Amino acid sequence: MPGRPRRSAAAPGILMALLIIATPAPASLHHPATPAMPAADDKQVLHENHERGEEIGRGLRREFIRLYERGQFPQALAVAKRAHALVTRLHGAEHIDNADPLLKLGIIHQTLGHLDRAREHFEHSLRILQDNHSRDRPHMAITLTNLGSLYFELGDYRASERAHQRALALRRAAFGPLSAEAAQSLYNLGVLYEHQQDYARAARQYQRAIELWSATLGSNHPFIDNTRRNLARVHLARQRTLQHHALSATLAR
Q1: Alpha-carbon 9 to chain mean position
Q2: Is residue 86 within 8 Å of 60, Cβ to Cβ?
Q3: Final residue belonging to a domain, choices 126, 160, 194
Q4: Where a domain ends, among 130, 160, 190?
Q5: Looking at the structure, do residues 155 and 182 belong to the same domain, yes or no?
Q6: Same domain, 141 and 222
Q7: Pair 132, 75 in one domain
Q8: Whether the Cβ atoms of residue 179 and residue 141 lie closer than 8 Å to each other
Q9: pLDDT value of position 247
Q10: Mind listing the pLDDT tens digit for each residue in 36-89?
């Protein structure tokens, strides 16, 4: 039996990944009935089949997000598998269009606690983007953010830091150094450093994230309230640590 669905400590990264990739164009999830085949050459038929497949793929992406946000995780997993199979059939397993279905497979497997499978899908998604020399920096940043979250959950903190630092660099390049997207990566780094009890670095990341979100999203955004609570907790922990060190030094004299 799978473990109870969960989200990692850096869960806002996962949520933002889902929202950013959402496709606004409506599309049916059902394959349209196949009409009588007109007299056309093979290229035209292939083009029409691909157009139909792309429409279905857009619908599957929207359906995955709807199911995930409702907490219907087994159903979301089934939809992600369908999307992956569709792209593989249309374009091949290593085509760049498969980076997104693989990302979603990783997200749902991580949520369900299947961490090894999630890692496989995230790393495959990132490898496809890199092998195809993708210039889609936001998509690469999303994949790296989710990888960083997964590495955090697996206890591989070095790999988590590298992934979040790379995501931060890509977001700064794509959206600017003062963007809300850059703040997301700073927040994730703050979570990581806090967990490692590196309170000074955690405080700097949280403070910077608060400043960027306040400037871009407004001072009342829920992200900011949450980060302020984290920052207060870090300051308290840092103060206690300094007091403990001072007491230990006094007793050692």
Answers
A1: 13
A2: yes
A3: 160
A4: 160
A5: no
A6: no
A7: yes
A8: no
A9: 55
A10: 444 445 445 444 555 676 788 788 889 999 999 999 999 999 999 999 998 998
Same domain? 205 vs 143: no
How many independent structural domains does the chain possess? 2
Q: What is the mean pLDDT of the chain?
A: 81
What's at 66, amino acid-wise? Answer: R
Tokens 């309230």 correspond to what residue?
225
193 within 8 A of 202, measured Cβ to Cβ? yes
Domain carrying residue 199: 176-253
- For residue 191, give the CATH number of its domain: 1.20.58
Q: Are residue 192 and residue 231 in the same domain, yes or no?
A: yes
Specify whether 25 is located in the same domain as 102.
Answer: yes
- 3-state SS of the chain is CCCCCCCCCCHHHHHHHHHHHCCCCCCCCCCCCCCCCCCCCHHHHHHHHHHHHHHHHHHHHHHHHHHHHCCCHHHHHHHHHHHHHHHHHHHCCCCHHHHHHHHHHHHHHHHCCCHHHHHHHHHHHHHHHHHCCCCCHHHHHHHHHHHHHHHHHHCCHHHHHHHHHHHHHHHHHHHCCCCHHHHHHHHHHHHHHHHCCCHHHHHHHHHHHHHHHHHHHCCCCHHHHHHHHHHHHHHHHHHHHHHHHHHHHHHCC
Tokens of 157: 């903190």
Q: Scanning the structure block, which residue is given the tokens 């700064």?
A: 172
